[in-house]
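Entry 12.
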Amino acid sequence: MEQNTEHNSECKCGKCDECMSNNKCMTKHKGISCGSGCSGAIYCLAFVGAVIYYIQAATGFWMGVLGVLKALVWPAMIAYKLLGFLGM
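Predicted 3D structure (C-alpha cells):
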C-alpha cells in the first residue's frame, strides 16, 4: 500500500506521515494535546479561590453577590492596574 504524502494544513501534530489514511488527517493522537485546557483549569482554580476570598470578606448577602461578580472580572482588574502602573 502506497503511503499518502499529501499534507493537510489543518493538522499541526507533526506526525502527518503516520496519521494519513484514506486522504484524511486525524487531528488527535495518543499523548498529544490539541487544545489549551491547562489554562482553563488554572483560571477555574483562581476563580474558585477568589470567590472563597470575597465571600469570606463579605459582611452581608449583597456584598457576597458583589464578591462573586468581582471574582468573574478580577483578571481584567489586574490587567488595568498593571497597565496603569507601567504607564501604558
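Annotation: Residues 37-86 form one domain. The chain has three helices and two strands.
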